[in-house]
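Slide 14.
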Amino acid sequence: MSKDLSFVVDSPYYASGDFRVEKAPTSPPEDAPSKGKLKDSLAGSIEALDALQRTLYAENHYSVLLIFQAMDAAGKDSTIRAVLSGVDPAGCQVTSFKRPSENELDHDFLWRTTRALPQRGRIGVFNRSYYEEVLAVRVHPEFLGPQRLPNLPKKLDELWEQRYASIRDHEKHLARNGTVILKFWLNVSPEEQRQRLLARLDEPDKNWKFEGADLDVRERWADYMAAYESALRETSTPWAPWYAIPADSKPYMRATVADIVVRSLRQLDLKYPEAGAAELKRFDEFRQRLADPIG
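Slide 15: predicted structure.
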């Protein structure tokens, strides 16, 4: 890991401290590669990620945490599935976080996600995460009631600042201990989301994806965008960068996410462990034992 804990790669979608939602594109640039080239790029990244994960597992010094946040129908599930399609299932784990249970509400807001962190050598994915506490909960402060906080500030802006600070500290602690954190906001436009939600109504094999509650969230679009803007500005750090990925084109989105993950992990300079001198001296003995027939 680099001494300054920096894992920011060169990307126009890196969200820095002056991030603005209104300036973040939802569509690919005009000079974006064709669908065919994007498909080839994704395939190359999938192959590279498979090799990187194998070395990550063998070296056993680092873990990787990929966090995905987005509005409904932005493509979180399909992107996770596409990017990790070539990785050994034993080397990755995906956790989706829904409405917190009573047991989870009896703990601090970082508890349930901390329990799901990947171990060294593995890639962990959070489909939604502790960021819901400064996104959905910020838009719907009534969700704070069941949390039974002992010292709820009168001005809720103070609470969000406290949670941003907790998140930054939590992520820096993880980075110091070998977790590479990459965070992706899949930035879909209202019109593209509308088309995808309509498809869930019109296509029978997609009906199961539709939830009426998605429309309630959609009606608070401006409030959610304000919450996302604040969250990305306050918690995008060199040790846990945010990337605001255009999500109106799924091929472009998937290829872009995969490329950022691969380039970030290459910064680790991962290597397979080498046998020590004492072990190397015994290799001839081991070969001889393997040459001898059993029984």
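Speaker note: The chain has a mean pLDDT of 95.
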